[in-house]
C-alpha cells in the first residue's frame, strides 16, 4: 500500500468523524430543547479546543509523541466522549462530553495535515489528492443516515450522528498506528522553542495580516453554513430529514473534483485569484439560498459550489502556509490558521447566526432572504480585501528547483 493511499485513508476517517454529526448538531440541540445561548456555548467548544491545540498539540505533543500515536490516543478518547454525547439529553452532561471530544479531536486536524506534509514528496502537488480523502469520508458517512433516520426523524434516531462518529473514531484509533512513523521533533530542531510567538509575529507582514483577516471572515461564513443549512433545507425548502445530509454531501462530491484540480488551478491562477474564486463561491451560494428557496433543483444544484468554497480557499491557505512560511514555524502557523478556521470562526458563527435566526423569526417562520444576505455581504467584503490588499511574496507555488534557484540568486545578491 503506497504512502499516498495510506494518507488518503487517514483523511477519509478523520473527516468522516466530523461529517457524521456536523450537519445536524444544531437541529438536534433544538430537538433536545436547548436554548440559543446553550447551542452557542456548545459551538464555542471548538474555539476552546483550537486555542488549547495551538499550545498543546503544536508545542508539547509534537515534541514528545510521534504523530501517529498522538492520533491513536486522541481518537480513542474521542470515541468514548462521543458515546457520552449521544446518550446525554440534559445540557451540561451533553456539553461536558462534547467539550472533551472537541479538545481531543480539533488538534488532530492539524496533526493529520502535518503528517501528510511530512510524508509527501511534493506537498503542493500531492496534498490536494490526499486531502480529497476527507471529502470522500464526509460523503460516505452521510449515506447511512438515509436508513438510520426517518423523514421526520426523532431524537432517538438523530442521536445516531454521534454513535456513527464514535464507531469511526474507534476504527481510526487502530488505523493510526499503521500510518508512516512521524517522530516527535527534537527541541533543537526548531530555532524557537515557542515557535507560536514567531507565528504571531508574522502577522506584522501585511500580506499575512490580510490573509488572517480574510480567513476569519470566510471561516465565520463557512461555519455559519453548517449552523443554518440543514434547518433551511428541511423547514424552508421541504427536503425530507433523512435526505438532507445526502443533499448537503453533494458539496463534498464536488469538492473531490476541485481538490483533484487544485494543483493545476494554483499553478495557473496563483494564490490570490484562486482564493478570490473560493470566497466568491460562498457569496454565490448564499445569494441563491436567499432568492431561489422555492426551487428545489436550484438549491440542490448550488450545493456543488461547496467544493469551490473549500478547496479554492481553505485548502489553498494550508498549502500557502506550508509553502511560504519559515520552515521552523510552519506547524505553529498551521495551528494559528486552524485557530481561526476551526476555533474563532466557529465560535463567532455559533453566536452570530443562531441570534440572527432568532431575530428574524416571526410566528415560527424565518426570513431566510435577509438571513442569507448577511453572509453574502461578508463574502463580498472579504473578496474586496483580497483583491485590494493581499500581495503574496510569490504568485503561486514554487517548485523545489525554482526555490533553490531563487535562493542562490538571493545569496549572490
TrEMBL record:
GO terms for cellular component: plasma membrane. It comes from the Bacteria. GO terms for molecular function: cytidine transmembrane transporter activity; uridine transmembrane transporter activity. Coiled coil: none annotated. InterPro entries: MFS_dom, MFS_trans_sf, Nuc_H_symport. It is found in: Cell membrane. This is Nucleoside permease. Residues 1-395 form the Major facilitator superfamily (MFS) profile domain. It is a multi-pass membrane protein. The chain crosses the membrane at residues 7-26, 38-58, 70-87, 93-120, 132-154, 160-178, 199-217, 237-262, 269-292, 304-325, 337-357, 369-390. SUPFAM superfamilies: MFS general substrate transporter. The lineage of its organism: Bacteria, Pseudomonadati, Pseudomonadota, Alphaproteobacteria, Caulobacterales.
